[in-house]
Amino acid sequence: MPTDIARLHAIFDLAMRIGEGMLTNGAAASEVTATVLRVLSSSGLRNVVVEVTFNQVSLSYLPDDRSTPFTRIRSAGVRAPDFARLAAFEEVTDRYIGGDLSREEAGARVVAIPQEKPHYSRGMMIAGFALMGGASAFSLGGSTMVVLAATIAAGVLIWLTGLMAAAQVPLFFGQAVGGFVGVLAAVVVSLINPVENSSIVVVACIIVLLAGLTSIGAMQDAITGWYVTASARILETLMLTIGIVAGVRGGLLLAHLTGQSIAVSAALPLSLASVLVLAVSGVVIGIGYGVGTYTPARLLIPMSMAAGTSAVVAHILARLLLDRVWAVAVASFLVGMIAVVLARWMRAPALLFVTGGIIPLVPGSRIYRGLLALPDQMDQGAAELFGAAEIAIAIAAGAVLGQLLASRILTRLGISGWAYTPVVSAPFSTVRRRRLTLPKRRKRDAGRTEPSTMTGEMTALPPSLLQEAQDELDASSAQGPSADLHVGSSRRD
Predict the structure, then answer these.
(1) Phi, psi values for residue 60, rounded to 5°
(2) N or C: which end of the chain has fewer CB within 10 A?
(3) Angle at 272 between CA 270 and CA 274, to 5 degrees
(4) Residue 305 contacts by C-beta under 8 Å, 6 or more apart in sequence?
(5) How many CB atoms lie under 10 A from the CB of residue 47?
(6) What's the pLDDT at 224?
(7) Nearest to 299 by CA among 221, 351, 246
(8) Residue 37 in contact with residue 48, Cβ under 8 Å?
(9) Boundaries of each Threonine/serine exporter-like N-terminal domain copy (predicted)?
(10) Rounded Cα–Cα distance for residues 105 and 244 (Å)
């Protein structure tokens, strides 16, 4: 479709700013790619190649075989979850694709989103993570003193890591300082009352530090085949986790020098009281994490309910039927399915419900037990850390599978709100990407025209635009699985 260079720049700028906003907030490569393609398709552009890597979004457009490719690249900034902004980017996408916003209006909106004030003040953000730390300690059976210490320690470590980030100190050192603060708080509790189970303070701080990592998007990329992006994200998560380990090890050395023993007690037994404790603490963890990640107020309750559900389900299954790894996988699978339904119902990113819902499943205690055992019992410590890695993979795999199944079911049913359905997919070819990024058409909609914002006025694309993609798909299916290779090259980021 011929167009002038100014219009191309405007459309590409809109698509790339939306893609950058999603990427910096932890969205998986498949979702970023699909969203960018949705924006471009609704603008009337075809033959566009989208590449999403760890910190970059690039687009290349070839109008026809005799034209010079038009290519633009945009780098993504620092990744810091801000779900209010992520929701704003998805809202702009939905309204632009639906024709409620013109290209100029959508472009002005996406430029303004990163410049807006945070949804909550910095003090409220710190208080949210502090509340999350206290709730995590309560879920582990901590006493009033331990819960209070965990609350204060979580707030202090978030405040310190924020100061270090503002001073351009690498996040690795911020995570190390956070781990050290957790052990230091546990030492203080042990000095005040040696009978208290002060190790819970450390575990709660580890959970708070791990909650800020974009591990779900990383594992989704790895599981679905976007290996280049996944490898960079996993390496980032690994290095930041090592930072936590370094800080905790330094704190344990201090505890040893002061003669304090900070060991982890057994998990809560299954009882009605423990289920109630986990349900309440899970809900509070979800609220605290939501405030800490600037989640809009209307979404805090659904996010907290997802967190409470995952905590209770994993606890019951682990005590009655399954190994902890499988119990966590089932719980995260339910969270993934619930997240997709909530996303379409609440018109919000599924990522925030998934991330908030799995926080109670983070294996903080196993990580800490592994760190304690490493110096004297290397085999036991390595086994604990390997078990923590198993749980982390089970969390990610279960959440991804739940999203995949729920999104495919809802898409098949043709339920409205398709723009808020996450695209959980392996790298796709040209035909398949059109099918995955456009809404499913029913026979009764065969004569329906799709809105386009290619110009300032609202025009209509011919019905053949969607029909052509479906015809190509049918033709490739009739020729066999290899037909896709001749229609469009498979793109692996």
Answers:
(1) -140, 130
(2) N
(3) 55
(4) 283, 286
(5) 16
(6) 78
(7) 351
(8) yes
(9) 13-252
(10) 44
